[in-house]
Design goal:
By secondary structure, this protein is mainly alpha-helical. It has one domain. It has helices at about 1-20, 20-40, 55-70, 85, 105-110, 115-120, 125-135, 140-150, and strands spanning about 90, 95-100. A two-stranded antiparallel sheet has the order 1-2. A hairpin with a 5-residue loop joins strand 1 and strand 2 (about 95-100). Helix 2 (about 20-40) crosses helix 7 (about 125-135). The protein is elongated, with a radius of gyration of 21 Å.
Length: about 160
């Protein structure tokens, strides 16, 4: 199925580039990407329950810090890289947008494939869930209807 999808995508790009159809899809695609980005940049609420340790090694390290200093001290990095604010959209090629972040720990927080249990349990949304929410909201379809309504003046 993946080969069929790639062939269809290639054929549509050929047709669209010759006839200029991509200009009509730019606004809906951008609106869809913005909705996904909005979903990803939301921080979850602070959990009302204790967050379980990821591993026994983590548990021992934190308790060693508490025993040594009387409280837990974050020694590995001083501040956050602001994951929520870091998501950005860039135009890449004909009719393609890329949504991404340069935050080094992002895959462990918001990637469906690599999210660690601690972040899942505290309510962090994954990339796949953000896309699913945008799809369910119908952002692309609404924007596409608006574009065609303005082009054809009669609606779709």
């Amino acid at each position: 199925m993946n080969k069929d999808w790639e062939r269809l995508k290639r054929d549509l790009q050929k047709i669209a580039s010759k006839q200029g159809f991509y200009k009509y899809f730019e606004v809906p695609v951008w609106a869809y990407a913005e909705e996904v980005r909005a979903n990803l940049k939301e921080y979850p609420e602070r959990p009302s329950h204790p967050v379980p340790f990821e591993s026994d090694k983590q548990r021992k390290y934190i308790w060693a810090m508490i025993n040594k200093y009387g409280f837990y001290v974050r020694t590995y990095y001083p501040t956050s890289q602001n994951l929520g604010k870091s998501w950005a959209i860039a135009k890449e090629g004909l009719g393609q947008l890329v949504l991404g972040t340069r935050v080094t720990y992002a895959p462990y927080v918001q990637s469906a494939e690599r999210q660690i249990a601690m972040h899942r349990k505290t309510g962090w949304i994954t990339d796949e869930k953000a896309v699913e929410l945008a799809r369910k909201k119908g952002v692309f379809e609404k924007a596409l209807k608006q574009v065609f309504a303005s082009v054809f003046k009669g609606g779709v």
